[in-house]
Amino acid sequence: MTVIPSSATLPAGAQPTTATPSVARPTRTRDHRIDALRGIALLMMFVDHMPQNLLNRLTLRNLGFADAAEIFVLLAGYASWLAYGRGFPRYGARETLTRLAKRCVKLYVSQTLMIMAFIAIILTWRQFTPVPVDFLEPELAHGVSSFWRVFLLDALPSNLNILPLYMVLLAAFPLMYVVLKFNRWLALGLSAALWLLINIDPDVNFPNWLDPDGWYFDPLAWQFLFMIGAFGAIEAEKYNGNLPAFPWLKVACGLYLVFSLLEAFPWTQWGLPVIRPLALPSPDKSTLAPLRLLDVLAIFYLVQSSPLAKRFSETRFGQALALCGRHSLEVFTVGTVLDLIGRLIFTTFGEGWLFQVVINCAGLAILYGVTVVYERKRNRARAQAAAHRKATA
User: What is residue 208's three-state secondary structure?
Assistant: First the structure.
């Protein structure tokens, strides 16, 4: 039998003989499902953070136990492995740790800018009309003597508490990476044990000066979801970005999501008879209760094992969602500030259909415009970098 050398093993300048048939390798294309799903989560966050917004009746938080926050954190773990987990062997520890540090700094800057924008907008609005005190915690509404607590993440205002969670998880990622590389099942088991401990004793939490119960998103519990995301990225790499499709598991996930829908759907808001099978209390979000965890895992598995979801992400609408997902920080930052403005408008001028349509359409249009601007900026930077490499080659 004749052994045919690959082109990678031929001497420099040599070419494979034409008598040898070559086998074409399949082209690996970008999987946009993760970006599209993250884009959906970000837009749902924008809708959910305005309690008066009627559109939030159709978001995940009213269609199941989990909501967009769980999807955001799970995909953050998935994307962190792709960006930094693969970066350690590719670029080295020093370069990857530098990139991680820069990302954490960027998250902190965004958090600070949102807090300053909140305070400025609320104080300005109060000059013309009363604003309910719950728009800004009373401790921060009177003077600036306590602002240092905000900057040190010792005080986390409402609706401004998920980026600090993301910062903590990213800062812990190098440790997660070490354990994952040693044994990914051990890493998952240790993470699960810590999550279980927090669910048994919810008092174990980071301190929050504004809330005696601590951080709304307890990092010691939510790290499990982040770890699952990283673990899922490792497993999906073995199957070209897909999770293995087991029909029995898909059926189980589908049945659980139907049960979750029946339990969480706002029947009375729609004027419908309540048909909850068990009428369970809402599972705790701070500790990432098991019912919420199973809900988001079922959604993630069905999406990441579905060729149909992959084809959808490649459509024009799917690409628009993926664009939002690729610029998640910018979309979240702008969307959170728009949420405050929308809440103020609803509170001051009413919640009629005209304001519902205007606020939702204008907000979603602005967020999409933000993604277009940042995508063009990214493309220009890539083009300049490619031109520089070509010129110096």
Answer: strand
